[in-house]
Write a structure and sequence with these properties.
Layout: E1 3-6, H1 9-28, H2 36-47, E2 52-59, E3 62-74, E4 77-87, H3 96-110, E5 115-120, H4 125-133, E6 137-142, E7 147-153
Parallel strand pairs: 4-5
Antiparallel strand pairs: 1-2, 2-3, 3-4, 5-7, 6-7
Helix pairs in contact: 1-2
Length: 156
């Protein structure tokens, strides 16, 4: 069973940078557009908001992933938003992503939203396949086609 621990930017700096940088490589083929200091500042700002939940994922006391969630407004309603689902390479494709999604949906339920969105690179075929398996549907392309916005329904 996975455990989730709230990120402390100062303590977890190197780990969150490593995980986020790798997510850029997986999504876009390189980390050229990843700006470490901007990301750390954004994390610090967001971690103090009540409508966010940024956590590290542990399995048997080893850090294996990261999850970044928030509640935001979209088209005049509040939705859940997944900024990041991340698992280290050797933990991908083993069913653990479903546990991350369950954690995310529980966070969204506690905040009273029934819909959540995320954006994914169109070249990240593994992620697209996973999101479709979860029942997410494509809303459309954004950022000049660099990403696809997808929508999911919070179950139960």
């Amino acid at each position: 069973m996975l455990k989730f621990r709230t990120i402390n930017v100062d303590r977890d700096r190197e780990l969150v940078l490593t995980f986020r940088r790798d997510s850029f490589v997986v999504s876009f083929g390189n980390g050229n557009d990843f700006h470490e200091e901007e990301y750390l500042e954004w994390l610090k700002e967001k971690q103090n908001e009540n409508s966010t939940n940024f956590v590290l994922v542990l399995e048997e006391e080893a850090y294996i992933g990261q999850l970044e969630l928030s509640i935001r407004q979209y088209d005049e309603k509040y939705i859940g938003y997944v900024h990041l689902y991340y698992l280290i390479p050797d933990k991908r494709g083993k069913g653990l992503g479903s546990e991350l999604n369950t954690y995310a949906e529980n966070f969204f339920k506690r905040h009273g939203v029934s819909e959540y969105h995320l954006r994914v690179s169109p070249t990240n075929t593994s992620a697209l396949s996973f999101y479709r398996k979860l029942g997410l549907t494509v809303i459309g392309k954004e950022l000049d086609g660099k990403v696809i916005r997808m929508r999911g329904q919070v179950s139960g």
